[in-house]
Amino acid sequence: MTRDWPTFFESRVAGYEGGVVAKAQELAWEQVEATLPPVGMSAAVDAHKLAEGRIKEVLANPDKVLKPPALWPQKARRGKIMASEGEAKKICIGLVQRKILRVAGSEERIYDKEGNVIASGLFGLGKGVEFTSEDGRLLELLRLIINMVGPNEVIEDFEGDTSTLPYLGQWRSTTLQRGEVFRWSGEDLRSACYLLLIPLIWGKFMLIDLLLPGAWFGVQEEWVMLCLNVIPMGWKLAVVIAQHVMRN
After folding, report:
1. What is the mean pLDDT of residues 136-150?
2. Distance between alpha carbon 230 and the CA centroid of its chain, in Å?
3. Whole-number mean pLDDT of the chain?
4. How far apart are CA 129 and CA 140, in angstroms?
5. Average of per-residue pLDDT across 90-95
6. Considering only CA atoms, which of 46, 86, 92 is closest in space to residue 197?
7. 22 to 14, 55, 140: CA distances (angstroms)
8. In angstroms, what is the C-alpha Rg of the chain?
9. Of 148, 132, 142, nearest in space to 79 by CA
10. Which residues in 148-199 belong to E strands, given as ranges?
11. C-beta of residue 12 within 8 angstroms of C-beta of residue 18
12. Is 154 exposed, middle or buried (0-12, 13-18, 19+ CB in 10 A)?
């Protein structure tokens, strides 16, 4: 078992306070697969059915949170696809099998003012958990992040249920008397965002910036684009919607 030290140090940088901060990394399916829900589990929870009020309206109608066309970018920012051609193929096929991605229809597109398709990139962030690869290398598991800098430019901010997120610092004001014990607990869902299915109407805002052979996905079209079926990590509204749905 050997550690890939160059990759280890390239994936980290020191922050302002001297701590280690993870950097965006090149994706490899071997490092991503184990961090995703298994086939049949992803996109299994219908976010729209569980939502209420404003969140339900937004999920059903993207126009509720779109910026006016006049405020759309002249040239949208593009997120980089941080994966080799071979790894991108493995990743996209694996994500379609898990229903995290689907083949987008030719009409499912949005454009900036210059007429360019607005789409997203992909990159990985280290989870701090290592495993031994098939060839004996010590690798880090990678969290799949969708770089939605382009689509996020056309969506307005709104708070939703983010004000209900826990803040551990609030417990600092708690006072205990001698002999008293205070216990609290929390819970989390693995790959929570990728469990939450979103309505098809959001597909055109969720494109991945790759043109791929349709044959990879069993469709007749020669070339296709893929879009997300789930709430992606990297979307401006991810925390807003996920927090609301989880509370419900």
Report:
1. 90
2. 8
3. 87
4. 6
5. 96
6. 46
7. 9, 32, 11
8. 20
9. 148
10. 196-197
11. no
12. buried
**Alpha-carbon gap, residue 120 to 239, rounded angstroms:** 18
Phi and psi at 150, nearest 5°, equal -75, -60
Structure tokens at 122: 């992909």
- CATH number assigned to the domain covering 22-157+192-247: 3.10.10.10
Question: What residues contact 230, with CB distance under 8 A and at least 6 apart?
Answer: 42, 43, 99, 100, 193, 194, 195, 196, 197, 198
Per-residue pLDDT at 40 exceeds 80: yes
The pLDDT value given to residue 17: 45
Give tens-digit pLDDT for 156-176. 988 777 777 767 677 777 888
Q: What is the token pair recorded at 91?
A: 């990743």
- Cβ of 246: how many Cβ atoms within 10 Å? 18
- Spatial CA neighbour of 78 closest among 50, 20, 118: 118
Instruction: Identify which has the larger pLDDT, 15 or 108.
Output: 108
Q: What is the pTM assigned to this prediction?
A: 0.81
In a 10 Å sphere around its CB, with 0-12 CB exposed, 13-18 middle and 19+ buried, how is residue 195 labelled?
A: buried
Rounded to whole angstroms, the Cα distance separating 196 from 50 reads: 10
247's tokens = 């509370």
Whole-number pLDDT of residue 160: 76
